[in-house]
Design a protein that fits this description.
55% helix; elongated; mainly alpha; 2 strands
Length: 136
């Protein structure tokens, strides 16, 4: 299979993300339950919940992107990520991609419009992280 970039338009990206969000919900419940159990049933610090969600989501995506290049949602829609420099995807690439995708989520997907104007139809997260998609 070639490493030629495959254009994954926003609708497919959003569909894969929604699929993965259902899986993440289970991860969040498990990690949250563990945190509550460790603290004896009460979490005093209110901002610890969003931090746990953020970190567990990064671990979820980081694991799947480094072990196979795709999450289950990406596999259903038949695309995966790869590094544009033809090396194994690094933790720094995954971190940049995750943080930019999180920003894109909070901006209601508006940064995805960048892919219509960029060379090679790369999204902002693809461009900044040095990754792209290929068809599986």
């Amino acid at each position: 299979m070639s490493n030629k970039s495959y254009i994954v338009f926003p609708l497919k990206r959003i569909a894969a993300t929604i699929y993965d969000l259902f899986l993440l919900l289970g991860v969040w419940f498990a990690v949250g339950s563990l945190a509550v159990w460790i603290n004896g049933g009460v979490i005093e610090i209110k901002w610890i919940g969003p931090i746990i969600v953020f970190i567990s989501s990064w671990v979820f995506y980081g694991y799947f992107w480094t072990h196979g290049g795709k999450t289950l949602g990406m596999a259903v829609w038949k695309f995966e990520i790869y590094s544009l420099n033809n090396q194994k995807i690094s933790i720094s690439q995954i971190s940049i991609r995750y943080f930019v995708n999180t920003l894109t989520f909070f901006l209601f997907g508006v940064p995805l419009i960048y892919m219509y104007f960029s060379k090679g139809n790369l999204s902002l997260s693809d461009y900044l992280s040095g990754t792209s998609y290929k068809k599986i």
